[in-house]
Fold this sequence. Notes:
Layout: H1 2-22, H2 26-33, E1 52-55, E2 64-65, H3 79-84, E3 87-94, E4 97-103, E5 113-114, H4 119-132, H5 159-163, H6 181-187, H7 191-195, H8 212-226, H9 230-239, E6 248-251, E7 265-267, H10 269-280, E8 284-285, E9 288-289, H11 293-299, E10 322-326, E11 329-336, E12 340-345, E13 350-356, H12 369-382
Parallel strand pairs: 2-4
Antiparallel strand pairs: 1-6, 3-4, 3-13, 5-7, 6-7, 8-9, 10-11, 11-12, 12-13
Helix pairs in contact: 4-8, 4-9
Amino acid sequence: MKKIVKYLLFIIIAINLLILISGKSWIYKAISITYLKGHTSSYIHDFVHFPANTIEAGTYEEWLIAKDYNKVNLPEFIKPTNKELETVAFLVIINDSITYEEYWHGYSEDSASNSFSMSKSYISTLVGVAIKDNIINIDQKVCDFLPEYCGEKEKLLTIKNLLTMSSGLNWNESYYNPLGKIAEAYYGNNLKKLVMNLKVIEPPGKVFKYYSCNTQLLAFILENTTGKSINEYASEKLWIPMGAKHPALWNTDTKGGDEKAFCCINSNARDFARIGKLYMNNGNWNGTQIIDSTYVSQATTSAADLLDKDGNKNLNYGYQFWITNYKDLDIYYARGLWGQYVICIPDKDMIIVRLGRKYGKSLEDGHHEDFYQFIDAALEMYD
C-alpha cells in the first residue's frame, strides 16, 4: 500500500513539474472551474468564475409584445429535444415583436448566460461600425495595425481574411484538447501573447478554417484604431443604441485585461436577440444606421470564393455569421458552443433565440441537428 501511495505521489509531482515547465499553469484554473465543480468542459454559467469588463447599457427600449404572445404551444416533437439538451431559453420574434418565449431550469428573461462564439458576430458588427465610420476598410492589411504581423507572409493578411476565417494561421481549434490553444485562450491569462505570436503557414484568402484567433485579432485591431477597449466600444456603438435592458459582462483574460473576443459575452435572451433585429433591419435601428446595409449583406452571405477543408466551395460562413438555406429559406445566424443561437429568417421576418447547456450532433453540412429542429418548431408554430 505504501508503495502505491509513493508511486501515485511521484506521478502527481511529475505531472505538476511538467505543467510548470511547459508554462501551462492555466490548466490548474481549468481543472478548478470544470472538474472540481462537477463539469467536464465549459458551461453556460461558468462566467462567474472569470474576471469581466462591463458592456454598459443606456436607456432601456422595451421589446414589442405580439397580440398573440404565447398563445401558440410548442410542438410536441421539440419537447424531448429541449429536455435532452437542457434548453434554458427559447424565443420567437416576428415583425420585431416577441411572439413566444419560454424559460427552463430556473432561467428567466433577465438571466445571464454565456454567448460563447456568438460573440464573434458582435465583433464582426463592430468591424462594420468601424468601416462605416471610416476608421478602417475591409481590405486593409493587418500589418497596418499590428506590427507583429508584418513578416514576409504575415504582411499579406487582411481584415477580410480574418472576418472570413481564411487567415492561414498556425492555430488549432480543438475543443477537446486540454493542452490546446483554444483551451489556453479560454482559461489562460495572456491573450495577446497567445495570438500575437502566430504565423501564416497557408496562403490567406484561400481556405475557410474556423479559428477563434481571427476574431481575437480583429478585436485588437479595433482597440488600436478606436483607442477604446472592446467593452467600451460595444457599449457605445451597440448596447446603448440598441436599448439593451441590462449591462452585459464580457469575460477577460485578467482583471481589467483583454476581452475574450472570440467568446464570452454574458447576457440574456432578449438582449441577445437585438443583434438579430439590427441585421433583419439592414443595420438600421429605429431610424439610426448603425452599420451600412452593404456590410449587412456581405456579412450574411457566404464567402463562396473560399474553399472548405475538403476542397468544396464555402457555403456556410460569411463575416463571422453562419449561413445556410433550409426549406428554400435563406438563413443566417450567430452560433455559440453548446447550442447558443440567434437565428434570422428574413423571408419570414423571424428571429429565433435558443440558449442551452447542450447541443445536438454535428452534421456533415457544418450545422447541428438541433439547429434545424428549433427552426422546424418555430415554423410549425407560426408559418
